[in-house]
Amino acid sequence: GAGVSQSPSNKVTEKGKDVELRCDPISGHTALYWYRQSLGQGLEFLIYFQGNSAPDKSGLPSDRFSAERTGGSVSTLTIQRTQQEDSAVYLCASSLTGGEVHGYTFGSGTRLTVV
Amino acid sequence: EDKVVQSPLSLVVHEGDTVTLNCSYEVTNFRSLLWYKQEKKAPTFLFMLTSSGIEKKSGRLSSILDKKELFSILNITATQTGDSAVYLCAVNSGTYKYIFGTGTRLKVLA
What are the structural domain ranges in chain B? Predict the structure, then answer.
């Protein structure tokens, strides 16, 4: 697609429920990232996918968080048993290579509110 | 530990003012520095800086990098209400990850 597409744009869920956030990167971009931005905070790295390589999951805050990328394109971030501290904007970004040369293009994000 | 610090945290100015936003960093193997503008949710790319002393310019915005003193500044001249946003700085230390600062929240009053 023309840009990075994320859905849903907003999600309100009850504490303890599971949620799935979707990211469709720019066509041809091999690198895909998930970041989290809590209120008043900078962007916190969560996970990185590059082509068919094993993802870097070092930023995932707990084992309730997981992500996959099917066919090297669309990615899904899943949060199980959501907690109130999971409330944040979840941003997906993609880049042509590893981002160090061209930087990232961000999607519009998903605002998750856990009540 | 690699880190990026932005200052000020927030700033309120009037239309027509000039502002300077600061970004200092400590990383083990600097490769590039990015500036983004975030108005609602999606940060939009402004500049990528890799070399010291070379000013990048786009309209009323400009930015420069000092690799010796480990900082960058983003200047906005003749500010407009549409410049109101959070400005994010991010540094790459030779890997695929960028480390982001917490941002500077700029509000421009009419």
Answer: 3-95
